[in-house]
Amino acid sequence: MTEKEQIDKLRSELRAHNHNYYDLDEPVISDFEFDEKLKKLQLLETKNPEFYDPSSPTLRVGGAVTKNFETVVHNERMYSLDNSYSKEDLEDWEKRIQRILGDDNVEFTCELKYDGASISLTYEEGRLVRAVTRGDGFQGDNVTTNVKTIKSVPLQLKDNFPAKFDIRGEIVLPFEGFAQMNAERLENGEEPYMNPRNTASGSLKLQDSSLVAKRPLDCLLYGIVGQNTGIATQWQMLEKAREWGFKVPSVAKLCKSTDEVLSFINHWDVNRHNLPYETDGVVVKVNSLQQQDELGFTSKSPRWAMAYKFKAEQVSTLLNEITYQVGRTGSITPVANLEPVLLAGTTVKRASLHNADQISKFDIREGDTVFVEKGGEIIPKIVGVDFTQRPKGSEPTQYIENCPECGTELLRTEGDAKHYCINYYGCPPQITGRIQHFISRKAMDIEGLGSETVEMLYQEGLITNYADLYTLTKEQLLPLERMAEKSAENLVNGVQASVSIPFERVLFALGIRFVGETVAKKLAKAYKNIDALMVANEEDLVAINEIGQRIASSVVEFFDNEANREIVSRLKSYGVQFSLSEEQLENQTDKLKGLTLVVSGIFESISRTELKKLIENSGGKVGSSISSKTSYLVAGDKMGPSKRTKAESLSVPILTEEEFLKMV
Ligand code: AMP
Ligand code: ZN
Predict the structure, then answer these.
(1) Residue 39: CB partners within 8 Å, gap ≥ 6?
(2) CATH classification of 314-411 is 1.10.10.60, yes or no?
(3) Distance 400 CA to ligand 2 centre (A)
(4) Are the C-beta atoms of 261 and 285 separated by less than 8 Å?
(5) Those residues with Cβ within 8 angstroms of residue 288's Cβ, 6 or more apart along the chain or in another chain
(6) Of 1.10.3720.10, 1.10.150.20, 3.10.340.11, 1.10.40.60, which CATH number belongs to 428-500?
(7) d(C-alpha 181, C-alpha 176), whole Å
(8) Which has fewest Cβ within 10 Å: 83, 303, 477, 574?
(9) What's the order of all strands across the beta sheet hosting 305-309?
(10) Does ligand 1 come within 6 angstroms of the Cβ of 222?
(11) pTM
(12) Distance of alpha carbon 122 from its chain centroid, rounded?
């Protein structure tokens, strides 16, 4: 055998052994024999670098070091999942799905919700070419080198895989490996890791891949995205992924009824503690991919999936003190300061009490022993008081009447659960909060400037609003504490660079109440520049799809304010973007202005996503189900018959693909 042949043989043997060991849990040779073969291959590869192969099993041991993880845009967005915490919520969702689809026998696939770090793997011609973390869903970090060391991630697929696809999964650290790692750390006198999930996601960002290779990480897959994969259902997707060599847990069930879904949940709620890895719920998905496609996505998550969260762990602890926080909009949030307690792997010291009603509802008092729970939210919540432990002579909580920061009397408007400090321009946390929001990643994303520096700049009297950032000079900054030449320069440059941030993000950065990212995008699209938006009245605003009264009056109020108008005009003079770019404008028409179109079926010349985008770029709105408000139904191939009947009964005109394209 030539050395090339030996290399090929060893590679394919080791691949098979890896698969037997890590995916199937059925090793056929000893660890010792495996290591011998691996060593031999390593030697041969070093000797013959011309036979380098990016999917060689030797890459499993790591070695490459990544200094900075490159940011990459996902081929397809990675969405979140909607959560439900009760069986009723879940059943409501299932009913809603049946109604929208006009099908009483929708099939669902149930899978466990693995609790780790999300990952998207890209395969081309059967080879792993990229592994990217979820990041913000649109883009994440390229962690390919590290992921290649995870033994259950196939570097080379088998059988009839599609030419190109992405597969999504979760990188987890099984309990046993986690415990082992911690035992070793303790032995070495190091702090143990808190929980498997954080350790798993932390591992992906280690610079030295050989350290990652030593961690017993596992990768569990659940979803394939890509064109022409030849897959018709979620269930088939799981089966195919297994065939191609991925690790897909066998705990999953194809359910023909809501009852079957519930019994799967009930079973695993109890039995999940016997699983080798952490799970925090069940993910229920509409099985048919065509139906999934019909249901589509909200701005955050698929409409065709729902996570049912297992009931959270609960502990009791002492509430030492209630303090109050002032947000950037002046809203007051009461905070419970707790005697530190371990809950679901993290130490909890504080919990949000939401508002005054919440406190009086549970009659929560300082000195009480309270029950704390960690639900889906990151911040734990107080779910009750242990009245048997209430100390004698305890008094009901008196909610504050004045702002804890500036002393202004608090205001609570009808229908709003929160109290507000209305000292918009004089209350320090509001001033700094607005600036901190302005510079944040999703807004102006100003590099070289962080929340603490904003705090300091404000205290030093250098800034009182975000427009002031643009006049900061290096000379002003240098005398400040911990401000070196380089950091001062970075700050000034970071601020200057932000003038290229597009209009919709600037609009979001302004911090107008109720104007989040999505609303900012809508407003930017509708008005195209700030001058048009500034003169819009409430009536104009609510005429835009999905802009309600509350948002409209907040926008009008913001621009009615002389001080805000001045800040905007100053920002403009510094070169900040206040209109859509040429390119953004070019692709837009208002041919479908005021119309709502529902899309159904499969299309020939255009994907469903493109079609929906086309509707939006033409000024129209995409509706999710047919109602009397629907202007047109755009019907592709294989549209459900119930949709047609419904459209006909409501006299909603039906457009073919061709007719639609002509229209726009
Ligand atoms: P969340 O972060 O709560 O919005 O939940 C969404 C995340 O759940 C996704 O990013 C996935 O990585 C993760 N997840 C875990 N198990 C599954 C599963 N079986 N199907 C879909 N997503 C899952
Ligand atoms: Zn105040």
Answers:
(1) none
(2) no
(3) 12
(4) no
(5) 106, 107, 232, 233, 234
(6) 1.10.150.20
(7) 9
(8) 574
(9) 83-84, 305-309, 279-286, 108-114, 252-255
(10) yes
(11) 0.56
(12) 19
Structure tokens at 233: 């259902």
Q: Are 513 and 553 in contact (CB under 8 A)?
A: no
Distance between Cα 403 and ligand 2 center (Å): 5
CATH number of 3-60: 1.10.287.610
What topology is assigned to 503-586 in CATH?
DNA polymerase; domain 1 (1.10.150)
Place of tokens 């415990």: 179
In this prediction, residue 378 carries a pLDDT of 55
Nearest to 100, CA basis, from 661, 653, 625? 625
Task: Express each pLDDT in 229-283 by its tens digit.
Answer: 889 999 999 999 999 999 999 999 999 998 999 999 999 987 876 788 888 899 9
Nearest CA to ligand 1 atom 22: 113
Which residue ranges in the chain fall short of pLDDT 70?
A: 189, 273, 345, 375-379
The angle formed by the CA atoms of residues 29, 31 and 37, to the nearest 5 degrees, is 75
Domains 428-500 and 503-586 share a fold: yes
Q: Of 305, 287, 299, which Cα lies nearest the Cα of 622?
A: 299
Segments making up each domain of the chain, as ranges: 3-60, 83-309, 314-411, 428-500, 503-586, 596-663
pLDDT score of 375: 54
Distances in whole angstroms, Cα of residue 606 to Cα of each of 76, 603, 611:
16, 6, 6
Residue 403's alpha-carbon distances to 333, 350, 420, 423, 531, in angstroms, are 11, 20, 8, 9, 35
Q: How far is the CA of 449 from the centre of ligand 2 (A)?
A: 25
Return d(Cα 217, Cα 200) in angstroms, integer.
Answer: 7
The question of whether 113 is a catalytic residue gets the answer yes
Region of 135 on the Ramachandran plot (φ > 0 left; ψ -120 to 50 alpha; else beta) = left
Which residue shows structure tokens 């401000």? 483
Scored b (16 or more CB within 10 A) or e, 77-101 reads ebbebbbbbeeeebeebbeebeebb
| Pocket lining: 111 vs ligand 1, CB cutoff 6 Å | yes
Please tell me the predicted confidence (pLDDT) of residue 663.
86
